[in-house]
């Protein structure tokens, strides 16, 4: 599905996708409201969505779509070439961010990749943006919160964290809530991504994490 308020851009992207033998557009929308309604009506593997629309943010709609469908591929197609947009797309769980000025081959490649690897984010300039963000002040975690974060990164359940750290599950949940708050995260996956970005944990320590 393609959601973009610019009719010419939206139709061009739809034609480009439909011209591929292995791809098919099941629907298109020109606003956040229309897109939200159509997402409820059409099963799909990949969502291609613009950022700025007259009635709201495409990123907000993309976040809701990700929460509703963890395995949905999401390609953010935008003219905004800035760290804020790129990192917000990463945080919400998008599969890729592609500039509207990119070659058509790049858009198609992002769609195909999003279909098979929705959890693996791809964007030009990602490494540089992460370095710039990591140079900012890191949140201050207590030693106990750091221990809990380490176990979350390793993929442990709440019950496993409680057992390994000799705490009650309710106490672990309290620490987890504090960690989420300090990292600006809304779930385990976004907390781990934030921790990786900020250099609070090492990439090799991350386990298999649900969205």
From TrEMBL:
Keyword set, alphabetical order: DNA-binding, Phosphoprotein
Pfam families: GerE (PF00196), Response_reg (PF00072)
InterPro entries given in the database record: CheY-like_superfamily (IPR011006), NreC/VraR/RcsB-like_REC (IPR058245), Sig_transdc_resp-reg_C-effctor (IPR016032), Sig_transdc_resp-reg_receiver (IPR001789), Tscrpt_reg_LuxR_C (IPR000792), WalR-like (IPR039420)
GO molecular function, one term: DNA binding
CDD domains, A to Z: LuxR_C_like (cd06170), REC_NarL-like (cd17535)
Domain HTH luxR-type: 134-199
Protein's UniProt keywords contain Phosphoprotein: yes
GO biological process, alphabetically ordered: phosphorelay signal transduction system; regulation of DNA-templated transcription
Domain Response regulatory: 1-115
Modified residues (4-aspartylphosphate): 50
SUPFAM superfamilies in alphabetical order: C-terminal effector domain of the bipartite response regulators, CheY-like
PANTHER family per record: TWO-COMPONENT RESPONSE REGULATOR
Protein name: Two component transcriptional regulator, LuxR family
Organism: Pedococcus cremeus
């Amino acid at each position: 599905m393609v959601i973009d308020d610019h009719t010419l851009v939206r139709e061009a992207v739809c034609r480009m996708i439909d011209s591929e033998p292995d791809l098919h557009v099941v629907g298109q929308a020109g606003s956040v409201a229309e897109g939200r309604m159509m997402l409820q009506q059409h099963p799909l593997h990949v969502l291609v969505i613009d950022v700025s629309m007259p009635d709201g943010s495409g990123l907000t709609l993309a976040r809701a779509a990700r929460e509703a469908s963890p395995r949905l591929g999401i390609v953010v197609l935008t003219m905004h070439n800035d760290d804020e947009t790129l990192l917000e797309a990463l945080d919400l769980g998008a599969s890729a961010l592609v500039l509207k000025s990119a070659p058509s081959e790049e858009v198609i490649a992002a769609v195909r990749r999003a279909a098979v690897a929705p959890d693996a984010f791809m964007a030009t300039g990602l490494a540089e943006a992460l370095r710039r963000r990591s140079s900012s002040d890191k949140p201050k975690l207590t030693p106990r919160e750091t221990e809990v974060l380490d176990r979350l990164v390793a993929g442990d359940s709440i019950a496993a964290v409680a057992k390994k750290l000799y705490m009650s599950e309710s106490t672990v949940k309290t620490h987890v809530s504090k960690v989420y708050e300090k990292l600006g995260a809304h779930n385990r996956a976004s907390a781990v991504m934030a921790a990786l970005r900020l250099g609070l944990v090492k990439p090799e320590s991350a386990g298999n994490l649900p969205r």
